[in-house]
Every structure is written in structure tokens, then in C-alpha cells.
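Q: what does this look like with flavin-adenine dinucleotide bound?
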Amino acid sequence: MKIGIIGAGASGIMAAIQIKRINKNIQIDLFDINKSIGKKILASGNGRCNISNTTLSSKNYRGEDIAFCEYALDKFSFKEFEKFCISIGLLLDIKDTNKVYPLSNEAKSVVNLLQSQVLHLNINVICETRIIKVIKEKKKFCLKSKDKKFANYDKVLISSGLSAAPQLNSTQDALIIAKTFGHNINLTYPSLVGLCMNSNYHHKLAGFKKEVKLTLLINNIIKDEQQGDLLFTKYGVSGFAVLDISQQASYYLSLKKNVLIDIDFFPNLSKEELDKKIRILVKSNKNEKLSTLLGGLVSNKLPLVLLQECNLDINIKAKDIYDKDINTIVSKLLAWRINIIETQGFKHAEVSGGGIKTYEINNKTYESKKCKNLYFSGEAIDIVGYRGGYNLHFAWASGYTCAKAITNGLQDS
Ligand SMILES: Cc1cc2nc3c(=O)[nH]c(=O)nc-3n(C[C@H](O)[C@H](O)[C@H](O)COP(=O)(O)OP(=O)(O)OC[C@H]3O[C@@H](n4cnc5c(N)ncnc54)[C@H](O)[C@@H]3O)c2cc1C
């Protein structure tokens, strides 16, 4: 039995290791464009690698049919993943937030240990090779790179990811190859990514960071709410709350919808509480500039922009302000509307949403419903996780499930 695996990321490596552990006589060729395996794992979590999460459910994912991932998450639960980690010598650090990191706090140790398994199990790694075509001739598959042909594969797994972070040699090849076998694709879009605004002030706020609540509005309908850090940047907004809301924002941008976000700069204060605080400031400091006073409430980058956006003189003194102006300021601080024009794009995205339609893949085996013995795993499939280790976990879990199906009935005696 000879198996070709296209893409040596988290899902391809997991599949290769599991297949060999079940039957060491199966021959595996593991292809990757990069010089070495697991390049994206190295880049993940800012080099720390948020490798998994202890609370896993389909609710942590987006896609046309999120129930698709339930079987793999159940078969390869966090507990199962932890056992696997121990089996390769990797210890884990489970945070209070349920996020899981390597105890070493370094993605490099994850890749080193996976590499050592790959070597130990005699998995044939073929690096610096981009597979651009998969052809099925009678019962065997043939894989083609630009100048080479690799033949006689009984089964092929496409685990080559999608377009996020092209600087790491990410490609859309999985989609191109899947299409040649009659698969349909859901539009891909950058996800977990900064959002670009069109305003004449956001560059003035660059560097200003605050815990906020964000509300995503599409055609005046609330589609998502997220609370967490927001960071203004030269291009627009970033920060954890923005990355979280970017999944839906980016999806709707790809559908050419008008994307608006309301920022509540004081998610832990009621309207009345904020109103009271501002009135106290104004009453007790009548001769002070309002912009200076507001600097005591929120970073001093915001007040000047706030006054401009409320059509107030930036030099106005507290004593000259009307009741209605305070109402306007409070309303603005609790629902500051921004217009999102685009995302920062795939280059800056952590993952790609969209991909190969799940309806055309068997969720218990990850085998194509269009072509026998052809399998898909990982990010190439139309399943994308929220921030928190969910994307890597789906890559591990889908690779594992796929390996179990590929080796069904082929256990080493
Ligand atoms: C900067 C960054 C930070 C991230 N941080 C986290 C995090 O902390 N936690 C988390 O859960 N997720 C994180 N992610 C997302 C996560 O890394 C991915 O979702 C996951 O690695 C996907 O695994 P995969 O095996 O499906 O695909 P990939 O890891 O993308 O692997 C696919 C491999 O196939 C190769 N390839 C592509 N086309 C071909 C071809 N035609 N022939 C041969 N090889 C090919 C690619 O070069 C790549 O090495 C992060 C992503 C990025 C970019």
C-alpha cells in the first residue's frame, strides 16, 4: 500500500504519523513546498503555538455546515490529543482560559518532536516539491509537480491548507485539485485578520488600545458581538476583539455587503453611569478644556477626535458645554460607528475561511464523495475555527480521523 500526502502541515503530519503507527509497512510520501515540515506551526501563536483548546465543540467553528466537524472532534478530543502529545514527548501548558500551549512555550519544540517521529517512523518526506496535479488512472493515483511525476499511489490525502499567510508558501492548490475531481468550493476569505477603515481620523488614533465591546451590523442587523481588546492602527483596527469579529466581517465583505461596527468604549459601564461620570468632571472643572478632562476618562488620543466627531470645538471649555452635547458625547462613546472597507488580506490573516464544500466529503472518513480513495483534511475544508487553538485542533483531528479511515482493516499484525 502506498499513500501520497500533499502538504506537511499539522493535518498532513498527524495523518502520516497515525497511518505509520497503525501499519509500519504502509509506504508514505509526504510532500511539501517548503524546505522543512510544519512551517505554519512554527509561526502560530506568535511562535508560542496555541496548539489546542480543552473545550472543543462545533460551536467554535464557522462554515456552511459546522456539524461536519463534530465526529472528528469527538474521536480526537482534547484528551486524545494530550495522549498523542505525551507519546511524542510533548508536555502541555493548559491555561485558565482553556487555551493549550506547549509547556516549553515554543512552537519549535512541537515541530522538532513531530519531525523526530516522522524520521523514526520512516515517513518519506519530499520537500521543496509543489504538487500541482493529481490524476487517477484506473485504480492508482499519479501526482505531478512542475517537472516530476510520482506514480502508483493507492490513496491520496490533500492536506495542503489554504491561502492564509502566502509568505509561508500557502496555496489554493487544494481547491484547484479538488475541482478536477468535480468538487465544489465555497468562496475563500481571510479570517482572524485586521480590518481596514475609511475615516479621516483612525491614523491619529494609531496605538490607542482599550477593552471594548464590538457589534457587527450587516444591513442594520446584528450579526456578531465580541468583547476584548481593540487597537487602532494606521490602516484601521486590530486587537483580539477585532480578530474575533473579523471572521464574520470578512465573510460579509466577500459578499460585497456594507460592513459596520459599533464600538462601545465602556462595556462595563451603563449609559447612566458614564453620563454621571462625565457630568461630574464637567461640573467640578468648569474652566478646564473639555478635551483635557476627557483625557482622564479615556486615553488622551481619543478626546480631540471625539470632539471633532461630535461637531464640537476642540478647544471648548467645560463651562461652555450644553446638556445635549454631553448626551452626544455619551452616545458616541457607547456606539462609535466605523465603516469597514476591507480586511488586511490573506498576507496578514491567520486562517482562511471557505474552502472545499463539506457536503461532498464523508465526515467520518474525510474521503471524497466524488472520488474513491481521495481524502481531504485541515484548513482546505470549509471549516474555520475561532481564535483559541481551534484551527490547529481541527487540523490535528481531521488528519487523525482520516488516518483511521485510510488504515481501516490494514492494522499491523
Ligand atoms: C501567523 C499564524 C498564526 C497562527 N496561530 C495559530 C494558533 O496559535 N492556534 C491555532 O489553532 N491556529 C493558528 N493558526 C492557524 C493554523 O496554523 C492553521 O489553521 C493550521 O496550521 C492549518 O493546518 P493544515 O495542516 O490544514 O495546513 P497548513 O499548516 O497550511 O499546511 C499545509 C502545507 O501544505 C503546503 N502546500 C501547499 N500547497 C502545496 C502543494 N501544492 N504541494 C505541496 N505542498 C503544498 C504548505 O506550504 C503547508 O506547509 C495560525 C496561522 C498563522 C498564519
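The domain at 191-266+337-343 is CATH 2.40.30.10 (Elongation Factor Tu (Ef-tu); domain 3). The CA atoms of residues 132 and 173 lie 7 Å apart.
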